[in-house]
Structure formats: structure tokens, C-alpha cells
Design a protein that fits this description.
Blueprint (H helix, E strand, L loop, with lengths): L9 H12 L3 H14 L4 E7 L5 E6 L6 H6 L27 H7 L2 E7 L6 E7 L2 E8 L4 E7 L6 H5 L4 H18 L4 E6 L2 E6 L4 H9 L7 E7 L4 E7 L11 E5 L2 E3 L2 H10 L12 E6 L5 E2 L10 E2 L2 H18 L75 H4 L10 E3 L3 E6 L2 E6 H18 L5 E11 L2 H9 L1 H7 L2 E6 L2 E8 L7 H14 L8 H13 L9 H11 L15 E5 H7 L3
Parallel strand pairs: 1-7, 11-13
Antiparallel strand pairs: 1-2, 2-6, 3-4, 3-6, 4-5, 7-8, 9-10, 10-13, 11-12, 14-15, 16-17, 17-18, 18-22, 19-21, 20-21
Helix pairs in contact: 1-4, 2-6, 6-7, 8-9, 11-13, 11-15, 11-16, 14-15
Length: about 600
């Protein structure tokens, strides 16, 4: 029998390796930005087009490469970072495997320009699918510019698996933020389709966080600082009152490398125990510095997971440090039952001396028992009676609620309803019993109402007595501008959307003012991640997200009238059988099925 095992050609091996290293355009962005940082760049520019599908270009002013290195860097496992296996446990740089550029060049058109400071001319190389098309000398500035075009051009199946431009751009911004947040001394800029997204000047850590996530972030931050033999911990956590329902703005960095760790995340959340409402999550920006020989970062292709030698120790230090900082800055409650917080001396006045005693002026001629005709009447206020107060209550039309018989196409539902475990609404029908999931049913009702308001009739909106100002990051503001028309068609009214702030002056009648911020944050999160099983219409995404956020939650006690109202409105829907996300809103059991349970 002939031999069947053979070595793969290099270009095929590179494409297989690319499957691990390059999952989407954001993977390329991460690798190129990290290479620029390893090159000691002080200024880095990121240019993308069509969410990175058409172009990803990184330009830096780093040390550049020689002509030989420029050509050799696209070979597999070619790296300047490690020489022996022991070096894997003493890494001081971002990239080290030598796979990134080879993998990227295997699935894209790559153009490289690079020059070292002591060279008169630089090197210009073009590569397509691992094949070098041309190499020549070129006049260019110090540093490196690498452009990746037509990603996955030779693997159309992988390209088809990419999400929409909105989602892919979101992933790119995430990677950009992770790199920018850990290197505040480096200038960063980012452009998408020639529009500036970020311009970050060199600064300190707090200013960089504020520049990335918005000015309003500054007031939310509580500093963290602790140094031990096994760990140096710095950074910030958010105050409990600024916790969010979504899990964004949570960053762990270990030795200047972004990581994900559910175990360490639990250490942070446990420090906030008793300070957060159910379902809310704190924001944090934590920077850990540990000895390089106590971690292994070579356990995952994307290097976002790290193995620690002493996880339990780190857990305890992180938890206690955060609890201490929250208490130190009067964020967490203290166990002093005789303490009056109003008598505390502010930090800014603790070392100041009193130069002059306060003087209290008293009006000794004031007599509170004198009548209004008295001379001492400067504090009196005479209220004028309105002659037209009755007009405030005229011309108010109360909408009539349709009866069940008018709404139901199925008139077989005849009995009263009952709520079970504050989750299901139960009613008898001619053929048996029906169980309605109150949350899923209400999602269907609200979803169809929002779509109808947006497409058929004008949405009902309630004016806010005082317009509400809400701060978002710049990329969130741009996303709100994109969906502004869809939001307004559901009942939102905006006075201004500019910079890092929106001003809401009206909301749909189903939304209370206290929930506006939470609903908009959830909506942005849904759009960024594209709610599963949704269409490509942003209006549909908006309607689904609002319905999900505003629907009656499991655990809510409903009166008999509220239960019956849900039944009426559900069976008046065009598609009452399923929620907007395809889950059944109700199930029914016939009498014969129930009889079988009893062996009848």
C-alpha cells in the first residue's frame, strides 16, 4: 500500500495557522498595534475602511526594520523576541510567536514600508497570499507602515462568516481601546472611512481613560493602588452608583497585556458585595504587574488568557484592596453607628487653619407672630388665587379600553385568569388550560406596538418636565446618531445629540424617566452585538431591544385586570404564538392530556 502522509505546502500551512490567529479584522488590528508598540513607537495611527474588510493600515514612528528583516518577518516562526524555550517564561513584549504576519500575509494583500533611523532609503514589499510580488527601495519616513487589504480574499467562506460592518467595527474599537488604555504615554489616532474616531494625546492613566470613554467618566472613578511582594495593583474602579446593567468597561491588564479572567472578575464583584443592585455590574480598569516567571501567557492563540501560579493570592489581594479603597473614599458604608457624616472634615480642609471665626447676623426686629399689616413683612408671601384652575382639568380625553370580546379572534377563553409563581398567567379554555409566559408575551405586545408606531401610525410620546442629559462615549454617540430616526419613530424626542452628550426631551409613553439611561445602554449593547435571530433592519433591532427592556419581568406581581389585559393584547397581535426572538409565548394542554396524568 502506498504512503499517504505528506507535508503540507507552506501557503496551506499558513492559511491553517491564520484560522487560529486571524478570526476577524479586529485580530489583524490587535497584532499590528502590538507590533508597533514593540517597535518603541511614540505615535501610532490606525486607518480602516469598510470595518477592516477593505483596508487595515497601521503607521508608526518606531525603530523600523532593515531590508533583510522586512523580508524575513513574513516567514513562519520568525521572531526577534525569543531564542530559547526559557524565554517564554520571561516575556517583556507583546508578540513573540512569529506567526501573526505570516498568517495575515497568507489571506490578504499586504503592503509594507519600513525604514530605520540610520538608513537613507527604506524597504517597500508587496505580498499576495504568502507570495512576494515585489520588493524595492523607497523614500519613506522612519518607522513602519503596514497595510492589509482585501482580508480573506482567497478564503471566501471565512469572509462570508464575518458580521455586519457595525459589529466588526465594534470589535476593532474594542481592540483599539484595550491597547490605548494600557499605553497612555503613546499618541494614538484612529480613522474609519477617513472619519476621525479617536485622537488621543500622550497623558497619564486617568486622562487616557477619560479620553477614551468620555468626560463623564472622570467623576465615576475611585483610584486603586497597592504594592505587595507578589503583585503591584493600580488603576480605578467605578463608584457603585454608576454601575451598569451591561458588562462593558471592565478591563484587566497584566504586565501591560489585556486579559480575560472570570476568576479575577469574581474577586472584583465580591468586593462590591452589598453595594450593587441585582443585575448591575461595576466598571473597572485594573493594571496588575507580576513577576514574568509566575505567569504563562502561551496557552491561547490570542494571548488573552493567562495561567497564574498563585491565583488565590491574587484574588485575595484584589478583593481586599478594592474594598479598602471603596471605604477610604467614603463609597462603602462604615460600621460606626454614632458617626455623623455631616460633621466630617473634607480632605481639602484637613490641614487648613481657621483665620477668622464665622459671624452670624440676626434680625432682632423680626417677629413671626405679627400680622401681614405690620411693617415687618419682608418675608411674607401672598399667594394669588387662580381664577382658571378648572381649565387644567378640562378637555382631557380618556382612551377607552376595548373589551376582550372585541379583541379576541378566539372567543373560547372564558374563565378568569390566575398568576402562578409571578411568572405564568393561567386561564381555562374550552379544550383545556392555557399557560402564558408573562414576560415573553409582553415582549411580543410591545414589539408589535413599536413597529406599528414606526411604520403605520405616529408614535405616542410624553414630554419630560426637565430635559435629561446623558453622557456616552464618542462611538456610542455616533451609533445613536445612526439610529436617531428609528428611535424618534418609537417615541423618543431629542433636543441635542452632539460631542459626548445627548439631551432627551421626550420618551415613549411606556418608558419611565428613571429607566431611560438603562434602556439606551442596553439598546446600544444589542446593536453592537446584533441581537441573535434578527433581521438586517436597524428599526427591527431597536424594536426588539426596547421590547426586551420594557417587558414585564418575571417575578412581577400582576393584578387580575393586568393579567387579563395581557391576554387581550397578546391575542390581538399578528403573531401571538412567539416572542420577537422566536420563543413560544404560551402553551396549552387539552383535557385528555390532563386526564392521562391522572391515569384516567
Amino acid at each position: 500500500m502506498s504512503d499517504i502522509i505528506q507535508l503540507l505546502p507552506d501557503h496551506v500551512a499558513n492559511q491553517i495557522a491564520a484560522g487560529e490567529v486571524v478570526q476577524r479584522p479586529a485580530s489583524v488590528v490587535k497584532e499590528l498595534l502590538e507590533n508597533a508598540i514593540d517597535a518603541n513607537a511614540t505615535s501610532i495611527k490606525l486607518l480602516i475602511k469598510d470595518a477592516g474588510k477593505a483596508l487595515i493600515q497601521v503607521i508608526d514612528n518606531g525603530k523600523g526594520m532593515s531590508e533583510t528583516d522586512a523580508r524575513f518577518c513574513f516567514e513562519r516562526h520568525a521572531t526577534s523576541k525569543i531564542k530559547t524555550a526559557e524565554d517564554l517564561f520571561n516575556l517583556q513584549t507583546k508578540g513573540f510567536r512569529g506567526e501573526a504576519l505570516a498568517s495575515i500575509a497568507a489571506i490578504a494583500h499586504v503592503e509594507l514600508k519600513t525604514k530605520q533611523e540610520n538608513q537613507e532609503l527604506g524597504t517597500h514589499i508587496k505580498i499576495e497570499g504568502s507570495k512576494i510580488i515585489s520588493q524595492e527601495l523607497v523614500s519613506t519616513s522612519k518607522g513602519t507602515s503596514i497595510a492589509v487589504k482585501n482580508l480573506f480574499y482567497n478564503i471566501p467562506a471565512r469572509r462570508n462568516f464575518l458580521k455586519s460592518n457595525t459589529v466588526e467595527t465594534r470589535h476593532i474599537i474594542d481592540e483599539f481601546q484595550r491597547v490605548a488604555l494600557v499605553h497612555p504615554a503613546i499618541e494614538f489616532s484612529m480613522y474609519h472611512n477617513e472619519n476621525e474616531v479617536y485622537r488621543l494625546n500622550d497623558s497619564n492613566l486617568r486622562k487616557r481613560i477619560v479620553a477614551v470613554l468620555g468626560k463623564k467618566t472622570n467623576e465615576k472613578l475611585v483610584p486603586i493602588d497597592e504594592t505587595t511582594d507578589v503583585l503591584t495593583l493600580t488603576g480605578f474602579v467605578s463608584k457603585p452608583e454608576f454601575a451598569k446593567k451591561k458588562r462593558g468597561e471592565q478591563f484587566f491588564f497584566v504586565n501591560n497585556r489585556f486579559i480575560k479572567s472570570a476568576y479575577l472578575h469574581h474577586a472584583v464583584t465580591s468586593a462590591f458585595e452589598g453595594l450593587l443592585a441585582t443585575g448591575y455590574h461595576p466598571s473597572y480598569f485594573l493594571y496588575l504587574t507580576v513577576p514574568t516567571n509566575t505567569i504563562d501567557i502561551n496557552i491561547h492563540p490570542t494571548k488573552t488568557e493567562i495561567k497564574f501560579d498563585n491565583e488565590k493570592t491574587l484574588y485575595a489581594i484584589i478583593r481586599s484592596t478594592i474594598k479598602h479603597s471603596l471605604g477610604q473614599y467614603n463609597v462603602a458604608p462604615v460600621l460606626d453607628f454614632n458617626r455623623d457624616a455631616t460633621m466630617d472634615t473634607p480632605y481639602g480642609f484637613k490641614d487648613k487653619t481657621v483665620y477668622k471665626e464665622p459671624v452670624i447676623s440676626i434680625d432682632r426686629s423680626f417677629n413671626p407672630f405679627e400680622n401681614e399689616s405690620s411693617k415687618s413683612t419682608r418675608f411674607s408671601y401672598k399667594k394669588e388665587k387662580s381664577q382658571q384652575w378648572e381649565s387644567l382639568y378640562t378637555d382631557i380625553s380618556i382612551p377607552k379600553i376595548n373589551t376582550r370580546q372585541q379583541l379576541f379572534t378566539n372567543d373560547s377563553i372564558t374563565a378568569k385568569t390566575h398568576q402562578v409563581h409571578r411568572k405564568y398567567i393561567v386561564s381555562t379554555i374550552k379544550s383545556g388550560v392555557i399557560f402564558i409566559h408573562q414576560n415573553l408575551a409582553h415582549q411580543r405586545i410591545l414589539y408589535e406596538e413599536y413597529l406599528e408606531n414606526s411604520t403605520v401610525k405616529e408614535a405616542m410620546s410624553q414630554q419630560l418636565l426637565f430635559p435629561l442629559e446623558i453622557n456616552f462615549s464618542k462611538d456610542d454617540i455616533k451609533l445613536i446618531q445612526e439610529i436617531q430616526y428609528d428611535l424618534e419613530s418609537t417615541g423618543f424626542l431629542f433636543d441635542k445629540i452632539k460631542g459626548e452628550m445627548i439631551v432627551v426631551k421626550g420618551v415613549p409613553t411606556t418608558i419611565t424617566e428613571s429607566k431611560i439611561t438603562v434602556i439606551l445602554e442596553q439598546l446600544l449593547d444589542d446593536i453592537k452585538n446584533e441581537i441573535p435571530d434578527t433581521s438586517f433592519s436597524q428599526l427591527d433591532i431597536v424594536a426588539k431591544s426596547l421590547a426586551k427592556s420594557m417587558a414585564i419581568k418575571t417575578g412581577t406581581q400582576l393584578s387580575t385586570e393586568e393579567q387579563e389585559d395581557i391576554l387581550e393584547r397578546l391575542f390581538a397581535c399578528k403573531e401571538p404564538n412567539h416572542s420577537p426572538f422566536g420563543k413560544p409565548t404560551f402553551i396549552s394542554m387539552e383535557l385528555n392530556e390532563i386526564d392521562k396524568k391522572f391515569g384516567l
